[in-house]
Amino acid sequence: MTKGRFVFRLITGGYLAYLGIGLIKDALTDMPENYVWYTVAGAVFAVIGLGWLLTGVRIFLKEGFQEPDADPEEEEVEELPEEGHDDALPGNKEENMVETAEDVNNIEKAGEEE
Q1: pLDDT tens column, 69-88
Q2: How far is CA 73 from each of CA 69, 70, 76, rounded to the nearest angstrom?
Q3: pLDDT band for position 94 (50/70/90)?
Q4: Quick check: 35 and 85 in contact, CB under 8 A?
Q5: Does this model's pTM top 0.85?
Q6: Using CA atoms, how far apart are residues 8 and 95, in angstroms rounded to an integer?
Q7: Counting Cβ atoms within 10 Å, is residue 14 exposed (0-12), middle (13-18) or buried (19+)?
């Protein structure tokens, strides 16, 4: 787990647990009309938050901090020749050309016109 993920889990889990416990406390103290729903929602927030928090700590203790994978910018990228350059293919330009059926027909028509 990277340091960023660990810190994110700690902050998110802690905050959700804090909100859930605060919601339960306020619902039971003020006793609004729908205090049961507030208590259930607070319990859900608290359970999810504590789950995130404890899971992050458990993974950290098990694996420790790991370095992120190599940045794609640092990896060497093989440069391909750009289109339109005459030196893209080795040898004579005429040797590298491919004739299609349409090219042959155009050549025959040009020969007939002359």
Answers
A1: 655 555 555 566 565 555 55
A2: 12, 8, 8
A3: low
A4: no
A5: no
A6: 60
A7: middle
